[in-house]
Each structure stands twice: as C-alpha cells, then as structure tokens.
Amino acid sequence: MKMLMCSKLSNFRIKTHRLRIGSLVLLSLIECLSAQAQEPNPLQKQTEANKSPIKWLQSSELPEQAIVPDSERKRTRFIVDAINRFKNNDLPGDFQIHGFASQAYISTSDNNVFGNSDNGGSFGFTEAGLNASVRPLPRLQISAQVLSRRAGEGNSGAPRLDYAVLDYRLYSHEANQFGIRVGRLKNPFGFYNETRDVAHTRPGILLPQSIYFDRTRNLALSSDSVQWYGETAVGTIGTFSSQFGLSFPIVSDRDTELSLVAGLRPGHLNREVSYIGRGIFETNDKRIRLGVSGIWLNTSYDPQFHNPKEIVNPGGLQFTPIYFSAQYNAERWSITSEYAIRHFKYDNTFGSAMLLNGANFFGESYYIQGEYRFTPKWEGFVRYDAFFADRDDRDGKDFARTLLAERGIVAPAYSRFAKDITVGLRWNVTQEFMLRAEYHYVNGTGWLSRLDNPSSNNTEQHWNLFSVQAAYRF
After folding, report:
1. Distances from the Cα of 200 to the Cαs of 99, 158, 383, 427, in angstroms?
2. Is the model's pLDDT at 305 over the cut of 80?
3. For a tag on the chain, would you pick the N or C end, based on fewer CB atoms within 10 A?
4. What is the pTM of this model?
C-alpha cells in the first residue's frame, strides 16, 4: 500500500483547492484508495512529480481505514462528486474561493491589548476572511476579499471590503512581466503587509509593531489606488519585482486620528492623493531577499467645529516613511530584519497652542528576528523589536516636558517608545490548521492603542504579554 497513490487526490491539492471538510475528505480518500487496485505507471508518476513541488499524499501517510456503512459511503461519494463538479466544470475562468479564520487569547500583566487583557485575559482578537478570484481572460484577473476583524475598541468585527482588484497583465514573457492593478489594493510595503490579515503568513500572533502598527492597521493595510507592477530576471542571479502607485488612503477610523493628530477634539481626516512604491530583489534559490519601500501619505485634518478661538484649527500633514527589508533563508532557519525611518511634517496652521503645530521630526523603528524550523510541523522564533516616536528624543523626556509646559498636561515619557523582546512557538497541525503561542516582555507603551488605553497615566512602563492562537484556512 505504500506505493499506492490515488489519481483523484490532485483535486484536493492544498495550494489550488482547499474547500474541504475534514470528515468528507477522509471518507473520500478511503473510497479512492479502495477503488485503485492496480500499480501506478512509473513513468506517469515521475512526470506528475516533476510537474509540481507540492508533496503528494501516499497511502502510508493516511489514517487507517475505518469501517463505513454503505449508505454513508454513497452519501459521501455524492457530496464529493458535487464538489468536484462545482470546482472543475461549472465555474468559469479558473474561479477560486479561499478563506481563513483565527481566534486568539491575550493576557497582559498591565495595559490593554485588543480588549481588557489585563483583567483575566481577553478573547477579543478574532479574524475571519473570505476571498474569491476569477480569470475571465488570460491576462485579466478579478479578485476581492471581505474581512471581519475584532480587535479591541478599534475594530468591532463588522465585515468590510478588504480589497477588490482588477489585475491586467500588459506584457508577459518567460523572464519579464508587467501589468496594472486598479481598485482597493493592498499597500505594498515591507515583507508582510500584503498578507498580514492571514495568520498563517505572519511570523507570530502579533507582527513586529515597530513596523506593522496594529493601531493604524486600516491606514496601512489597503487604499483605493492604481498600481503598476513588474518583474524581471536579473541575469541568472535572481529576479527583481517592483510596484508603484497613486492612492487615496483610508483614514476614516478613530485609531488613525488619535495616532496622527492626537484626537484632541472631534473632527476627521481627509483623503488626499498619496504615493506608494516598493522594489524587492530575490535570488533564484530564495535564500536572499532585499527590499525597499516608500510611502508619501498626504492628509489634512478638519475639526468638527470651525472656531478661530479653539485650540485646534484645520491643518495638513505629510507622513513619508521609508522601509528597508532584508532576509536570509537556510534549510532550517531564517533571519529577517526591517528598518524604518518615518518623517512627520505638520503645517503651522493647527493653532498656536497645538503641540503638533509646525512639527517636523523623524521617527525610527526596527526589528531583528530569527526563526528555526525544528521539524516540518514545529518552528520557533525570537525577536527584538524597537520603536521610537522621535529619534532625537528616544526616551520621550523632551516631549513630556514640552507637553507639560505648553498645555499643562502630565504624560509619561515612556509613551513615546517601546522595546519588545518576543519568543514564540508554532505547531502546524495540518496544512490548514495551526496552533501557536508567544510571550512578550515590553518596555514602553509607544505602540499601544489609545482607544484601549485612553489614559496614558494609567499605563505601566514595563509589562508582559502572553497569547495563544488557533487558525484555520482553506
């Protein structure tokens, strides 16, 4: 039986079609194995093995067959056949549907992360998404995703359109391709932003918060834009891919307002034309990846009530971060590091008593992360992550003194930085189901959500975070 393979298993190849229900899949595999009694053709087996790097399941890897009543087997066969027809015959243009869901428990010694986590822990971090794609023409692909995310006060879990893309490939060759994307697109920066909402693609339950802020996640994740992309071979060394686009940022959530304009009074941020781009070089053996990303984000703030006597007046700001990314991959281990320098420039029209009026400063952040794959199912990582709101005021003391002098407000200096040491463990139970756990020791509160922690004076500088997560994808 070890050499026996099922010719219909390709309908269940993990990367192409993941619409499986555990019990149905098991029964269909048993049925398929019992139906195939002849030895596979060696030549055909070799051809199929060379066609795709996906590991084929063999009978020796499957659970022992169970005794199943004939009525149950017939019913299962009918459902499986219906799914096969749905996937292969009735759907046009290589139609695909995928989805994911995850649930995490977070407990902190102090401060709140995604809910009231410092009081007995919180199950307030839930993610779920459903996406579909279709290729009506050889060069045109249409895809969209609806996302539900519950994460503290900033995300209620209400479904929203995460992305909706028209992707047209203008030119395609063996070594080069160029195209254009239009719609609500994922913002291309760093290594993880475009796939950060799928737990399986993240190097932890929480991404490095110095680069991938969760408190401004909606702003960073996607925007309504048009992007040009291309990929070209660099001799026999590797490939270079690039993206560049014009966008209207999504700035309508309260967490973003609190982060960019301190949220001192009711008002809203306006969407203005912005720019984003990224280039990544990757060697052919995938060992080395190097990237640089840049964003030129323009927005302006309008108070709800326009009154010259008010502290805060309308004003504009520019946020222009630059990201440098590097990764080295070996057989069992990987090292990843990203560095960002973030330029903030505010107009001098916000008002004389506004701390950000005419402000012009640079933030800085970086992380270094090591991953080790003990087995194909078990892997661990360790990370050091550092964030500084102002690189010329790394300990935040100048900010605290200025805030006290100009507005009479006492604020902790540690709210302007965060240094995070993280260790984590991941168990890939199956290709679809994953469990993970991680621990953080944090000095500072610079990346905490102000909605979950409305009073910075009620936070603690040194705190711990423990989290576990279960995630499923299909």
Report:
1. 12, 22, 18, 11
2. no
3. N
4. 0.78
